[in-house]
Amino acid sequence: MPDEKPYKYENLPIPTYDEATSSRSPTPATSRPDEPSNNEERQGLLGDEARLPVPTRRIGYRPPPTEDDESRRESLDSLEFLGSDEGRDSIAEEDAEMRREMDEMEIEEPPAEQSRWGKRISSISQSLHFPFKIRLPKWKFKLPELDASIFILLARMFALLVVVGLAYLLFMSDFFSNASRRMSGSMFQATRVREWLQEQIDSNNIRDNLQHLTAYDHLAGTEGDFALSNWIQQQFLNAGLENVVRDRYDVYLNYPKVGGRVVEILNADGSVKWKAKLEEDPVYPEEKRQQALAFHGHSKSGDVKGPLIYANFGSREDFKRLKDSGIDTKGAIALVKYYGTQGDRSLKVKAAEQAGFAGCIIYSDPAEDGFVKGKTWPDGRYMPADGVQRGSVSLMSWVIGDVLTPGWASVKGAKRLPVENNPGLNKIPSIPLAWRDAQILLQSLKGHGQAVPPEWKGGVPDVDWWTGDLKSPIVHLKNEQDEVEQQPIWNVIGRIEGIEQGEKSVIIGNHRDAWAFGAADPGSGTAILIELVRVFGDLKRHGWRPLRTIEFASWDGEEYNLIGSTEYVENNIDKLRADGVAYLNVDVAVSGQDFQASASPALEEVLLVVLERIKNPVRNDTKLLQLWQESNSKLKGLGAGSDYVAFQDIAGISSIDFGFTGDRFPYHSVHDNFEWMDKFGDPGFHYHHMLCQVWSLLILEIADNPILPLSMPSYATAIGKYVEDLNQWAGSKGANQAGKPKWDIEPLRAAALKFKGDADRFKSWETYWQNFVNNNGGYEQMDVGLIRHNYNNRASNFETLLLDLEAGGGVPGREQFKHVLFAPQAWSGYDESYFPAIRDAIEAGDWKAAEKAVGKAAKLLTLTEPKSFPSQPSPEPIPIIGKDHIAKLHDKIIQLLTLIQQHIREHCAKDRSAICNRVQDIHIDSAMAPKAQKDKYSILLPTYNERRNLPIITWLLNRTFTELGLDWELIIVDDGSPDGTQVVAKQLAKVYAPHVHLHARAGKLGLGTAYVHGMQFATGNFVIIMDADFSHHPKFISEMIAKQKSISTNGGYDIVTGTRYAGNGGVYGWDLKRKMVSRGANLFADTVLRPGVSDLTGSFRLYKKKVLEKVILSTESKGYTFQMEMMVRAKAMGCTVAEVPISFVDRVYGESKLGSSEIAEYALGVFALWLKV
Q1: pLDDT tens digit string along 384-394?
Q2: By three-state DSSP, how is residue 695 classified?
Q3: Exposure winner among 150, 451, 546, 578, fewest CB in 10 A?
Q4: What distance in Å separates the CA atoms of residue 949 and residue 1027, rounded to the nearest whole number?
Q5: Is 9 part of a structural domain of the chain?
Q6: Cβ(837)–Cβ(825) under 8 Å?
Q7: Which of residues 816, 849, 864 is at a domain's end?
């Protein structure tokens, strides 16, 4: 073509798929047929099967109607071109034959394929035959001879007119305002963003959301749950969230059968004397809505009979009191109250099991949540007589998530433990009951056993309170249920990608599933979550993006055992431990008017900042912080009550749970419905509005603050308090008393004290950074920004360092919980436990184990110091000391010694004393100088959907550098490719270890930022940037290296760039349009910018690492103009640049990412550089 230089395209060597994924050293393209292959690692690059939910139908609960789709994703081994030797040979033969024919016809390259319209025109022209020839008159013109400079001037004037015209059109189309909102967050002032968010929150929207959420029951895994997951997914999409996915897991759930549950009092002959109603009265009788059945989640199936015995709140102390009173409980049926001295219903059942009971009934006593407290529904907020509190009885303080897969995700094909004798399940059946049914049971105990002590009496009317004994009336308890070991549940997750540290995530969570209609639990939180998503989506549409990624999650299966969130954590554990910043959980958002929060101490400071910014309109616009302080509220610890457990205690992510609470309400009953919330829970939805503000401002502070607001001093203060509380508690358990091993808290106390000093020093860097930025007019230099990133990373990763991750680590007996400071109390699951391993050992009376746990906790606290805390900051940015710095220092010392010796010799030339003679004999040993650093080449390879190309390019790079005998590394920076690129990259990292490294990012954040990100991990003194799509063949690297070293001054050329438009360079595989766009772009840029290189848009380059770092610092572009700007600025800095002709081949697999937006971005970039450089 007229705009391309003639060249002959060379056959570029392309390996087979087997070769590309083999761990063997490079060999010629054809290998021996008997040569072994690495099948296992090749198979690891293949895609997995796509899973679709296939729920199980149950009586009484409708599963979601889905199709059984066995479709599979396309596998990597379907590459016919790469997988067939025969196919390659035939292609090579055809290619050679075609080139011979082209040479004979003097054709330089094959024409671009015609479009369908072009073929039609060609066909028509060939079919027409005219009976005459058309001859046109000929004229001869002779142009006056003009100086070439005139044409250059005219061309530049024309280019300038084009630029001005383009700029006018872009300004008129409002492109700049939109682009600036996309590419820069500086226009969004933090104060204004906060105010805007608070203004946009709409109480009416939250109310409408809650009305929709409570329209039908939605127990985990049922049709109602599936329908809500669809609705929430659509809300996420409507808001413009990115990467919205439905995250499925197959877990163990149980469901009640109609007629399968029975509580009866039997006559002596075994006939039924009385039968409990079990179910509540219909809440919506006129609408005939399905109403959830009353049962215990994860309860044991069984059919048992035994004498009834009342045991107060069902704590271990209560059962011990019965035993001490001489009441035998073996084989009896326990009747216990909710709440009280044992708040966890599952541990009530476990304590009854350990006391020898055959079954357990738990009822709602009016003294705890009913008429004794006040008016009941529908006249008040409290539980009515027919109200039944459902709930799970899996042992949440011992095992969380799917009880069949503790410690690993419940994905397809995962290993599963048996249900029988499962450590997370109770071994006796249990059932919940309303007090109206329990009243009959309690009345039947009169005269049996002993009269109960006053503190055991409840609020059920018309009852004489007796314990009962083995002579009590016989009760029949039956609990037949539908048990499904692999029932689908669905998390829904969406994101807003961060622009600075997109790989770091602030996770926002609320569970969706409910035992019935679930207005307060969890509907109030879900309704706010949907409004939160809408508001942040609107903010994103205005061009705003956070510095760090925000992930919004609607969890499923929380009510059973925190299942959805735990499975998500277990399935993404490495990523979360590395990049999780904070987890913000809301469960019951509003059930009263008192703000309460439980959190990691690291989040205390930022919570107080947020509370100071929100007013309570119900309390005369008093700020929430003032109300919090006036009520003497304190930040509580995290127990096992909601979805934060896996994030805090397994992943080591600082977590918080908060909401407005109050007196008890019809918890987990059908009376927790929209009407209750609208009338008694939060009339006007004012507290929903305030909670949404708290949540949104917390998100904003953590996701968009340049300095991550995780307070290490607050954490250190809390640790000091935890240590002293532990010591005092240990004393109450008999520490250092006669006959018991010595208890020594000093190692832990010393570690906590040292930690406090380090935390204060760590915090001081924030002041340094603020002063530095303020003194620079609000501008942060790139090196300071990188240090700030490091500082933030240390803060966010600190809590992960407190995880006991050694083999067999974790709380002994409860190894799923890894945090050395936090875990649920073993016998009080809803409450927190500080230093849980130590406390469990003391509870068990094992003081030696307690001493060992003290040592481990002190060690982990100490180990956090060098990894987490930088030294005291100096006025200059903290330097990163490495081999280069040491070598430079050594060189300067040698130079200084040489100068000193030279001066001495000059002096001694006049002084012939013995001392001078001795001094002149001093020899500066040049051998002491550091040896020249061996060259190492770091290849930066940004990828997006390069699953098929990546193994080939990696194989070729390995072969190239092995043949050259050079040290190398490949740094793959993947922008969240959905095609499985990262899976392939991980396998390649194993095959080609230690040369290949994957550094994944959360989404498409721009080509420029990919290079900046990759540079953080480059260890070579030279950096090569190239495309992963096989457009740049590694065969040219040797020529680029040779060219770089072809001059001896200053260590060779600073930059060597591949060019398609000089020498033997060229393009193969592009159509005419693509060639004209590329050639025109280069001509346009060359005319306007005069960069002095022939291929300004090329992206195959070799840099000295120090030069690249310097150029990147001054480069502002992030996308496809990044390469162009780097070259222009490099030339402006005086960098030496050489060119090597390359053959550019269109990508082997995939599609080009170049579109109209990139072309417009390029034109803008040229115009911007013309103004600046």
Answers
A1: 999 999 999 99
A2: helix
A3: 150
A4: 10
A5: no
A6: no
A7: 864
